[in-house]
Amino acid sequence: MNKLLFIINPISGAAKGKTIGKYIEEQLQQMPYTYTIWLTEHEGHGVTLAQQGVAQQYDIIVAVGGDGTVNEVAQGILNSNVPLGIIPLGSGNGLARHLKIPLNAKDALSTILSARSIIAIDTATLNGKPFFCTAGVGFDAEISYQFASMPGRGILNYIKATLSYFIDATPQTYSIESTNGTTSLNAYMVTIANAAQFGNDVYIAPQADIRDGLLDLIAIRTFSKWKVISIFTKILLRRINHSKHVCCLQESSFTINNLEQQGSSIRVHRDGEPETTTLPIQVEILPASLQVVTGR
Ligand SMILES: Nc1ncnc2c1ncn2[C@@H]1O[C@H](COP(=O)(O)OP(=O)(O)OP(=O)(O)O)[C@@H](O)[C@H]1O
Q1: Looking at the domain assignment, is residue 26 inside a domain?
Q2: How many domains does the structure of the chain reveal?
Q3: 40: Cβ below 6 Å to ligand 1?
Q4: Cα angle vertex 142, ends 62, 204, to 5°?
Q5: Is 197 touching ligand 1 by the criterion CB < 6 Å?
Q6: Boundaries of each DAGKc domain copy (predicted)?
Q7: What separation in angstroms does the CA of 1 have from each of 33, 58, 114, 284, 293?
Q8: What are 162-185's pLDDT values in tens digits?
């Protein structure tokens, strides 16, 4: 495990990505590792850089950035058997938090260098495109759109985007199909979780296990808006799965339709990054398809 590739997103973590390369170099100079640092130059670049890293037979490929960067680098190494390392720099860091990877760069780097715990985790796809932490339609997808259109990044912008969109949020009717039958419901959002949280310890699927070969679907049904504080408190206390306003399902795949927008395109997010896709939304688990260096 001595040939390391670091793929850094220089704009991640409110531009912490601009200085982290120098720090990694300082730490590794005196150590017996061969390392390379590549910077992403645009959206999607992390995927191609990681694929090049696999072809060049690096022992560990490290994503240095937020969940968007982790998503791209993980896509590039999916099914390759090259382990993914994570140095979390984002504002949410959902996958790193789920895998107990230290949130500070020094300890995250030590975890990677020791490579004591490398595990195979499940990954998932939404209409064929990979995600690793969460994906969703409805409220969480709209927040990812609002956030992406704001100048700058960071947790404060997430809070602003959430508060400003909450006023206008309306529930939609969805049908959710799985091998267990079809459920129809009126919901503010339908989230599909591979890991338990969105990031920032916001636990949308506290029961989700990233190694169980199953996806957890959480639909937040219609509720009076004055109950929002109680719903949000349950999310923070990791008890949202016990709310009567929530429908929780566990399956290896789901087909989700928005019955108010059938046949058209719809906004979704994958790991917090917004995109449009076509209905129906097909989500599937890919069991044990990514090796990751964890902090456990
Ligand atoms: N050089 C670059 N210039 C502009 N965008 C980039 C560049 N490199 C990568 N990106 C894009 O930046 C986006 C955000 O990255 P990422 O999620 O890692 O950081 P973050 O926004 O700080 O973290 P979080 O999502 O936790 O807030 C990703 O969609 C990625 O494709």
Answers
A1: yes
A2: 2
A3: yes
A4: 65
A5: no
A6: 1-130
A7: 8, 9, 9, 32, 12
A8: 777 777 888 999 999 999 999 999
DSSP letter at 93 equals B
User: Is 66 a pocket residue for ligand 1 (Cβ < 6 Å)?
Assistant: yes
Q: Are residues 101 and 148 in the same domain?
A: no
What ipTM does the predicted assembly reach?
0.96
What six digits make up the tokens of 231? 């719903």
For the segment 53-104, what is each residue's pLDDT rounded down to a tens digit?
999 999 999 999 999 999 999 999 998 999 999 999 988 899 999 999 999 9
User: 142 C-alpha to center of ligand 1: Å?
Assistant: 18
Range of the structural domain that residue 97 is part of = 3-116
Query: Is 133 within 8 Å of 94 (Cβ atoms)?
Result: yes
Indicate the pairing of strand 3-8 with strand 60-65: parallel
Q: Give whole-number Cα distances, 218 to 136, 140, 166, in Å.
A: 9, 12, 18
